[in-house]
Amino acid sequence: MDRRPTLEQIRRAPKVLLHDHLDGGLRPRTVVELADAVGYPDLPADEPEALGAWFTAAAASGSLDRYLETFRHTVAVMQTREALERVAAECVEDLAADGVVYAEVRYAPEQHLRAGLRLEEVVEAVLAGVAEGCRRAAGRGTPIRVGTLLTAMRHAARSREIAELAVRYRDDGVVGFDIAGAEAGHPPTRHLDAFEYLRRENAHFTIHAGEAFGLPSIWEALQWCGADRLGHGVRIVDDIGVDDSGEVRLGRLAAYVRDKRVPLEMCPSSNVQTGAASSVADHPIGLLRRLRFRVTVNTDNRLLGGITLSDEFAALVDAFGYDWDDLEWFTVNAMKSAFAPFDERLALINGLIKPGFARLRWEVR
Ligand SMILES: O=c1[nH]cnc2c1ncn2[C@H]1C[C@H](O)[C@@H](CO)O1
Ligand SMILES: [Zn+2]
């Protein structure tokens, strides 16, 4: 009998999501309604289903730069307090409905100032939306905890300011910092000032690295910037040799990443869309999981991928034959790597994740 986890069963598993962009996860209907409300005339389709299909097709061009161009439309409709609150609340509801019990959701405050909001107002609107989403989810019997990460855009020059913002709101639900955007030509070391400040403040940060650019980007993110985690990090595979007999040789950087248990926020479907991997089945996550790197599974952008975290796991089950042990391993890895305090992480692992997977295994045996 085939005991592979099904999509419906995976939805019931208590999942953890560390890498999800607020502005890449809107409901298509919400994009349409917000565009209507603010008079944004440039949406490529005015009907939710067609718009969703447009996003997934446009994002699957095989280029990160073109993938990022699609954010033009979502960012355009997220410029008011109401819009930000609504998008954040719906994001949390959607994650909870998919069985996510802990999530870190990121966005770049500097991209939401066009209608006159100040950075602080952007952060406060998103925090209010997250709190509302958590209340609604708890009311439906699907409680979820959500922290936010403030992202600075790597081509811009506001990273120090955004890092200071993250520290200012650290006790109100902002759990860390990130840099994102086009990787090639924008090395993380351009933002050293921000990272040094965060380290002095004992704050957490992740860096998008090793997605559209290779090992030098990962090396800089870890050894110059001091990143706690890697966003994607998929190109670490370039430092791993597998010979014809299957023997594996890790280069110095890959060995460091594995030895130090550096969390990899892997996003297989997104990588297929941007051309960082040719298919989910060919994605380096298969090798990296086998070698026991600290791999986590993430959505990156649910609207652009047309996916949920459960879909992402189901695709991995399909491609690699993963079982419940694998899915629980990815989930515990993610919870261990979260920016929430240690005691909360431990409580979620022992009180919710492990019992949840045990129950599911029992139910589907
Ligand atoms: O996968 C990604 N790589 C680099 N940058 C990204 C990715 N997904 C989203 N972004 C950018 C576009 C968003 O506007 C920004 C903040 O969420 O982060
Ligand atoms: Zn990302």
Automatic annotation (TrEMBL):
<dbReference type="InterPro" id="IPR001365">
    <property type="entry name" value="A_deaminase_dom"/>
</dbReference>
<feature type="binding site">
    <location>
        <position position="181"/>
    </location>
    <ligand>
        <name>substrate</name>
    </ligand>
</feature>
<dbReference type="GO" id="GO:0009168">
    <property type="term" value="P:purine ribonucleoside monophosphate biosynthetic process"/>
</dbReference>
<keyword id="KW-0479">Metal-binding</keyword>
<feature type="binding site">
    <location>
        <position position="21"/>
    </location>
    <ligand>
        <name>Zn(2+)</name>
    </ligand>
</feature>
<dbReference type="Pfam" id="PF00962">
    <property type="entry name" value="A_deaminase"/>
</dbReference>
<feature type="site" description="Important for catalytic activity">
    <location>
        <position position="232"/>
    </location>
</feature>
<feature type="domain" description="Adenosine deaminase">
    <location>
        <begin position="14"/>
        <end position="354"/>
    </location>
</feature>
<keyword id="KW-0378">Hydrolase</keyword>
<feature type="binding site">
    <location>
        <position position="19"/>
    </location>
    <ligand>
        <name>Zn(2+)</name>
    </ligand>
</feature>
<dbReference type="GO" id="GO:0046103">
    <property type="term" value="P:inosine biosynthetic process"/>
</dbReference>
<dbReference type="GO" id="GO:0006154">
    <property type="term" value="P:adenosine catabolic process"/>
</dbReference>
<dbReference type="GO" id="GO:0004000">
    <property type="term" value="F:adenosine deaminase activity"/>
</dbReference>
<feature type="binding site">
    <location>
        <position position="21"/>
    </location>
    <ligand>
        <name>substrate</name>
    </ligand>
</feature>
<dbReference type="InterPro" id="IPR028893">
    <property type="entry name" value="A_deaminase"/>
</dbReference>
<dbReference type="GO" id="GO:0043103">
    <property type="term" value="P:hypoxanthine salvage"/>
</dbReference>
<feature type="binding site">
    <location>
        <position position="300"/>
    </location>
    <ligand>
        <name>Zn(2+)</name>
    </ligand>
</feature>
<comment type="similarity">
    <text>Belongs to the metallo-dependent hydrolases superfamily. Adenosine and AMP deaminases family. Adenosine deaminase subfamily.</text>
</comment>
<dbReference type="GO" id="GO:0008270">
    <property type="term" value="F:zinc ion binding"/>
</dbReference>
<protein>
    <recommendedName>
        <fullName>Adenosine deaminase</fullName>
        <ecNumber>3.5.4.4</ecNumber>
    </recommendedName>
</protein>
<dbReference type="InterPro" id="IPR032466">
    <property type="entry name" value="Metal_Hydrolase"/>
</dbReference>
<feature type="binding site">
    <location>
        <position position="23"/>
    </location>
    <ligand>
        <name>substrate</name>
    </ligand>
</feature>
<keyword id="KW-0546">Nucleotide metabolism</keyword>
<dbReference type="GO" id="GO:0046936">
    <property type="term" value="F:2'-deoxyadenosine deaminase activity"/>
</dbReference>
<dbReference type="InterPro" id="IPR006330">
    <property type="entry name" value="Ado/ade_deaminase"/>
</dbReference>
<dbReference type="GO" id="GO:0009117">
    <property type="term" value="P:nucleotide metabolic process"/>
</dbReference>
<feature type="active site" description="Proton donor">
    <location>
        <position position="211"/>
    </location>
</feature>
<keyword id="KW-0862">Zinc</keyword>
<feature type="binding site">
    <location>
        <position position="208"/>
    </location>
    <ligand>
        <name>Zn(2+)</name>
    </ligand>
</feature>
<comment type="function">
    <text>Catalyzes the hydrolytic deamination of adenosine and 2-deoxyadenosine.</text>
</comment>
<dbReference type="GO" id="GO:0005829">
    <property type="term" value="C:cytosol"/>
</dbReference>
